[in-house]
Design goal:
The complex is a heterodimer of chains A (about 850) and B (about 80).
Chain A: E1 5-10, E2 13-17, H1 42-49, E3 56-57, E4 60-61, E5 67-68, H2 71-82, H3 88-102, E6 123-124, H4 132-139, H5 148-159, H6 163-168, H7 173-180, H8 189-192, H9 201-207, H10 209-227, H11 234-237, H12 239-274, H13 279-294, H14 303-320, H15 331-345, H16 353-369, H17 376-380, E7 390-394, E8 396-397, E9 401-402, H18 406-418, E10 424-429, H19 435-446, E11 453-456, H20 457-468, E12 485-487, E13 493-495, E14 508-512, H21 514-521, E15 526-527, E16 533-534, H22 548-580, H23 584-588, H24 591-596, E17 610-613, H25 616-632, H26 638-646, H27 653-660, H28 670-689, E18 700-701, H29 708-714, H30 745-752, E19 765-768, H31 770-773, H32 778-791, E20 796-800, H33 804-812, E21 821-823, E22 828-830, H34 836-843, E23 847-848, H35 852-858
Helix pairs in contact in A: 2-3, 3-12, 4-5, 10-12, 12-13, 14-15, 15-18, 16-18, 18-19, 19-32, 21-22, 21-25, 22-28, 25-28
Chain B: E1 11-12, E2 26-28, E3 36-42, E4 48-53, E5 59-60
Antiparallel strand pairs in B: 1-5, 2-3, 3-4
Classes of the chains: A alpha/beta (about 850), B mainly beta (about 80).
Chain lengths: ~850, ~80
């Protein structure tokens, strides 16, 4: 029998919580998630059953059949050797062309959206031009590309050309060693190859590549005429050379992409005409062939075209030309015009709403099957998922007019029906958003998917406007364009559209880890617990800190060093990307790059510098405990604290309990919150604001823990918040530490709302009561919570709605719980694919119920 | 006089027959595959308190055990 929430006395009435679906009374709590999937068609049911998930955890792939392919690394190497002496941007285009012209194509049973990025659907590509260490790690693993000798020779060939070799030359060995171990600082992008991008899908769908080729040709013709002008002026004339090369590279890349898509068309046609025995599938294959023959060469004419062109573009930008995590686009607005053609007007590729939901489900399964050739660090920190894939819906158009549509609803309904861990969804919340769509959002959350996570529409839109003022070429987004944004990865917003989008990850994701910094601040910058090395600047013996302010400033010094070093590494990487890792295909579909003749990686029009303090609350709670117990009450000395920490609290349990019971974040406690507010605004955001990055803007904090709160926790010794060495860090960016938010969900909101200055992009992780959310009052309570959240000007929130009983049952019998999805932090994961360490951190989160006080605060109408 | 490191503490031992690389408690460094992380320290709540291994080929300790743990037992 399912658990039903206890009654509440509210506004003089007894409120009962019967389940909204009475049939669920017969479903046991510990099997609920196994009963919620309902694929729209038999086809999507089959596709899900045979999906080749590529979930990774602890650096390893869960499925033993998954392995790296060799084709991409082979073909890009072949082209690199053959193109020696040519301009680098041309070499990059020729490399892409060689991959696309020679790669094995994959077309699977039941698929409608086709295309894959490796020679086998169990495989993923590698990128020796990025990090030689990341490839070396694969070569030493069970999933090495084969033949291994060939892969080793390729990696050896690229070592001197790689981004890693180029970047390493501009950092001391000491700084590299500190960054590579990922304990106070993330490793540089040149050492991991990790990347993110927001592709300008709009130009592909609206223009088609043939038009882009014509544009580039016209640009070259114009440039040549300019160069031939008499009298010759070198100060202007020579600038055309690099531009001509960029436009030529665009043409090479686009022609190769068209050819690649049309190879897919021919394959589908051959299968239809020569092998397929089912007449219905034969017709479908011919339709697939027709679509891939037309797109992305030509503009999309209907919704099927749009899904396919978008998928090819995704593969190119995120996996074939270069690896990039994410699935950044404003999917509902991007597809809405084609939805209207196919569903409303039925003038091309006529479809029903249900057909669209099936397409959404099929697209989600393509993402679910997508494998990322990412480094070990990134196979550790998104446990239980393939990679980060986050699309955005909802929000507003210019004038704060609701942007929700039936396409939005289809995306949400497909997600709820098929139940996949990826892609995650972000919903931009605005008061004008239609209730019908918010009900779909709720149903996904209520069913435990962990998405959509919610972003505050006005805050995000205003952030785009803010960054625009720092544009290096004075061409940042306009006020209208600022409304068209999506999350680039888990949390940081970035504009979408035909130009000005983020092309590479110098603009985000430099992670720094305050919990570990707190540990080393108490040891003069030395890491006694993990690496036994000086991990940061010497900031003094803590026992000599006479005042709390001295401790505060010592922490500031550690933080300032780490954040500057990490962002310097980002920008050094960007410098070399612009010279050796150009992306001619992306340039060809970016209106800015096309107009200016500049590579999209090198060009920056809209700054978007978001970087990630992760485990901030462990450090902040530690500050609170130290101030209270050592400097205010003088119950303990700093020497006693240092001694207890070095012993991992062993023999000091009473003292540990005092530190653990000191006021904690998330309880609307003014003592703790005033210190922590200052910690965020003075140090975390304040020190970042002093930095200027590649794009000319300041950088801002976007705390988003992903799985790093586990990894960093395991590399961090005991901390003054009462935590033991090795215990996980805090699981959000501004979330209370697991289990320490004891005053209910609205107290959490009131604490979080106190941080308002110089940052509004911190992840808030909350776990809500399953029986309440599944009751007849679930939507009303959640909606009133969300309205309060919006009014409090909080930037983000995401939810788990999953019971402890079900998670514990899954730990006992994982094979019976393959559909149990949980929100980790910024992404959702299959619970049984997460290490036990991580599973326990999710179980330990408080399951927030809503008492009468909470309902009063929210003014919930029941 | 140089302090002798107890055998159960991770230490350098060139040419050791029991290198960290073959130990079930070891997992690769997140960035450099020639380095590693030791996960043998575990607390009652399931916490894993790691130690960095500067050289997985030439370091060892008295807790060495051949093998490989499942992802479930790592972080």
């Amino acid at each position: 029998m399912a658990t039903v929430a206890e009654s509440v006395n509210y506004k003089g009435k007894v409120i009962n919580f019967p389940l909204a679906n009475q049939q669920e009374n017969e479903v046991a709590d510990d099997m609920l998630h196994e009963n919620l999937a309902r694929p729209t068609t038999e086809r999507t049911k089959r596709l899900k059953a045979r999906c080749r998930w590529k979930h990774a955890s602890a650096g390893e792939f869960i499925d033993s059949e998954v392995r790296a392919g060799i084709e991409r690394m082979r073909f890009i190497t072949e082209a690199h050797k053959a193109s020696e002496g040519q301009p680098e941007v041309i070499r990059r285009a020729l490399g892409l062309a060689n991959i696309l012209n020679k790669s094995t194509l994959v077309l699977q049973q039941d698929e409608f959206i086709i295309g894959y990025h490796a020679e086998d659907p169990e495989m993923f590509p590698l990128y020796p031009e990025l990090s030689y260490m990341a490839v070396q790690d694969y070569l030493m693993s069970d999933y090495s590309p084969q033949p291994k000798e060939e892969a080793e020779a390729i990696n050896q060939y690229w070592k001197r050309f790689s981004m890693q070799s180029k970047g390493e030359g501009y950092f001391s060995k000491e700084d590299l060693t500190r960054m590579y171990q990922v304990s106070t600082m993330e490793a540089p992008g040149f050492a991991t190859g990790y990347n993110s991008i927001t592709p300008p899908y709009e130009t592909i769908l609206q223009d088609g590549l043939l038009k882009r080729i014509e544009m580039a040709k016209a640009k070259i013709e114009h440039a040549q005429k300019e160069m031939e002008k008499i009298p010759w002026n070198a100060t202007e004339g020579l600038e055309w050379i690099s531009k001509i090369d960029v436009w030529k590279a665009m043409i090479i890349a686009d022609e190769a992409v068209i050819n690649w898509a049309q190879r897919h068309a021919r394959l589908a046609k051959i299968i239809a005409e020569s092998f397929e025995t089912d007449p219905a599938r034969r017709e479908e294959l011919l339709e697939i062939a027709d679509i891939s023959h037309r797109v992305p060469a030509e503009p999309c004419k209907g919704l099927k075209d749009a899904f396919q062109a978008k998928w090819y573009t995704y593969l190119l930008c995120h996996a074939i030309d270069r690896y990039a995590s994410g699935y950044a686009h404003k999917e509902d607005e991007l597809l809405e015009p084609y939805y209207n053609i196919s569903v409303e007007q039925k003038t091309f590729q006529p479809m029903t709403y249900t057909d669209v939901v099936e397409m959404v489900e099929m697209e989600r399964l393509k993402i679910s099957e997508h494998g990322a050739g990412k480094s070990r660090a990134y196979r550790e920190i998104f446990p239980g998922s393939n990679d980060l894939f986050i699309l955005t819906v909802g929000g507003t158009k210019p004038g704060y007019v609701d942007a929700c549509s039936d396409m939005t609803d289809a995306i949400l309904e497909g997600a709820r029906n098929i139940r996949t861990t990826e892609p995650s969804i972000v919903f931009r919340w605005h008061p004008s958003g239609r209730v019908k769509t918010k009900q779909h959002v709720f149903e996904c959350i209520r069913d435990g998917l962990g998405y959509p996570s919610i972003k505050h529409d006005i805050i995000g839109t205003e952030q785009m406007k803010y960054y625009s003022q720092f544009s290096k070429n004075k061409n940042g987004v306009t006020d209208d364009e600022a409304h068209y944004w999506a999350l680039v990865l888990c949390m940081s917003p970035g504009v979408c559209g035909r130009r000005k989008t983020q092309k590479t990850r110098s603009e985000g994701g430099g992670s720094i880890f305050p919990a570990k910094m707190m540990e080393i601040v108490l040891a003069d910058g030395f890491d006694w617990s993990y690496s036994a090395m000086q991990l940061g600047p010497h900031t003094g013996e803590p026992t000599e800190f006479k005042t709390f302010e001295q401790l505060w400033e010592a922490f500031r010094t550690q933080y300032a060093y780490a954040v500057s070093t990490v962002i310097r590494a980002k920008d050094v990487c960007r410098y070399f990307e612009g010279k050796y890792l150009q992306m001619p295909f992306v340039s060809s579909i970016d209106d800015g790059a096309m107009e200016l003749g500049r590579d999209a990686v090198e060009l920056s029009e809209q700054p978007n510098g978001w970087h990630n303090p992760i485990t901030t609350i462990v450090a902040a709670n530690s500050m609170v405990a130290i101030k209270k117990l050592i400097y205010d009450e003088k119950k303990y000395t700093m020497q006693q604290l240092v001694t207890a920490l070095r012993a991992n609290w062993e023999g000091h349990e009473a003292m540990r309990l005092d530190f653990q019971n000191a006021p904690k974040w998330g309880n609307d406690d003014d003592y703790a919150d005033s210190i922590i507010k200052d910690f965020y605004e003075d140090i975390i955001g304040g020190e970042m604001a002093k930095i200027t990055n590649y794009s000319g803007g300041p950088v801002k904090p976007v705390g988003q823990a992903v799985g790093l709160y586990m990894e960093i926790g395991s590399r961090t010794g005991p901390t003054p918040d009462g935590r033991f060495g090795g215990d996980a860090g805090d699981d959000g960016g501004i979330s209370p530490y697991m289990g320490t938010d004891k005053k209910g969900p609205t107290a959490v909101l009131r604490s979080v709302a106190k941080v308002q200055k110089n940052q509004k992009a911190n992840l808030l992780n909350q776990r809500l009561s399953v029986p309440i959310m599944r009751s007849i009052h679930g939507f009303s309570i959640w909606k009133s919570y969300m309205d309060a959240w919006e009014q409090l000007n909080i930037d983000h929130v995401q939810f788990n709605v999953v019971s402890t009983a079900e998670m514990k049952a899954a730990q006992q019998e994982p094979e019976k719980h393959q559909d149990l999805i949980v929100r980790v932090s910024g992404f959702s994961a299959r619970f049984v694919d997460i290490p036990t360490y991580g599973q326990n951190t999710i179980i330990a989160r408080n399951e927030q119920a809503f008492g009468a006080n909470d309902l009063e605060y929210l003014n919930t109408q029941l | 006089m140089e302090e002798k490191i107890p055998a159960n503490i991770m230490h350098d031992e060139i040419g050791t027959k029991k290198p960290c690389s073959s130990c079930k408690w070891q997992i690769a460094d997140p960035t450099n595959p020639l380095r590693g992380q030791c996960t043998v320290n575990r607390n009652a709540m399931g916490g894993v308190w790691k130690r960095w291994i500067g050289n997985v080929s030439d370091m060892t300790c008295g807790k060495h055990e051949e093998g490989k743990l499942s992802f479930r037992e790592h972080v």
